[in-house]
Amino acid sequence: MNHFNNIKVVHGITTRLGGVSEGVFGAMNTSFFGVDDKMAVFENIKLALNTIGSDAKTIVATQQVHSNKILVIDAQTPFSELRKIDVSGSALEGYDLFVSPETDGLITNRRDVVLMTFYADCVPLMLHDPETGYVGTVHSGWRGTANLIGGDAIAILKAKGSDVNHIKAGIGHCAGLCCYEVDQPVVDAFLQHFTTLEMAEFVRPKGAFKFMLDLKRANAIVFKRCGIRESNIEINQDCTICNAHMYHSHRRTGYPRGTMSAFIQIK
Question: Which CATH superfamily is domain 10-175+229-265 in?
Answer without folding.
Answer: CNF1/YfiH-like putative cysteine hydrolases (3.60.140.10)
